[in-house]
């Protein structure tokens, strides 16, 4: 298995036991949490992110990573294998500390993630971006993602919004 690596940063796989370490990142990213959940970051936000899996799916197919710089957690990735179908993966979250945004880290992480996914035999990567987050939508389009549809989304808090479903080809199918 090829490792997920970005020069100058440490990327490590994490799980539910790491929720307390990851929670401060979610709290610093309260701008995003307000868009997604309609309220400030909840105390259990990291735990929820590290434990939630699609209905009927197995936790073994969930991959959660943190990105660190000088031992400070500055990002999180949540991705799910073979969802919605074999060789297709779902990127549930790429969350970057507001102090690191707009400096090219997201693009470098995506380059590394694409390489890692291809090594996992992934052919397509799916994601949903909030309609209320046009900056993120521009980022994903610049990363080669194309819109497939728009649909309603209900957050764990019950907050209702809309998302843009997007996908990108990773390797020849």
Q: Could you characterize what this model shows?
A:
By secondary structure, the protein is of the alpha+beta class. Helix content is 28%, strand content 33%. The protein contains 5 helices and 7 strands. It has helices at residues 19-28, 30-37, 45-51, 105-119, 134-142, and strands spanning 10-14, 62-69, 72-80, 88-96, 124-130, 146-154, 160-169. The protein has a 7-stranded mixed β-sheet, with helices on both faces. A hairpin with a 5-residue loop joins strand 6 (146-154) and strand 7. The longest helix has 15 residues, at 105-119. The model has no long low-confidence stretch (mean pLDDT 93).
The biggest sheet, with number of strands, parallel, antiparallel or mixed sense and barrel status, is: 7 strands, mixed
Radius of gyration: 15 Å
Widest sheet, order of strands = 1-2-3-4-5-7-6
Low-confidence stretches are none
The residue fraction in helices comes out at 25-40%
| Number of DSSP strand runs | 7
Mean pLDDT: 93
State the distance separating the first and last CA atoms.
20 Å
Beta-strand fraction estimate? 25-35%
Secondary-structure content class: alpha+beta
**How many distinct helices?**
5
Order of helix and strand elements from N to C terminus: EHHHEEEHEHEE
Please state the overall shape, judged from the principal axes of the Cα atoms: globular
